[in-house]
Amino acid sequence: MMMSVDADLIRVLADPLRLQIVTLLARETLCTTHLVEETGAKQTNLSNHLRVLREAGVVETEPCGRFTYYKLRPDVIEQLAGQFAGLAATARTAAENKRVCP
Description:
- The chain is α+β, with helices and mostly antiparallel strands.
- The chain has helices at residues 7-14, 16-27, 32-39, 43-55, 74-93, and strands at 30-31, 59-64, 67-72.
C-alpha cells in the first residue's frame, strides 16, 4: 500500500513564520499580541498566517474577552508525523527494489 503525505499541509507548514507560530503554540496557548511579541511580525501579517493555519486545521481559536487565543491541534501534527513514519517504513522495506531501465 502506497503511503502519501498531505502535500497541502506541508505547504502550510513550509513557511518559516507559520512554522515558528506552530512551534510557539506547541508550548502554550497564545493570543495574537503574544505572537507579535514573540515573532516580531506585523500584526496584519501574523493574522494572515494564523488564518491560513486555522483554515488548514492546524490551530483552533478560543475567544477570551476582546482577545482571541490560538492553540495547536496536536492530532493534526501527529497525523502528519504518522504519514512521514509510514513513508519511511515503506522506503525501508523497498530499499532493495530497483526498477530495470528499458
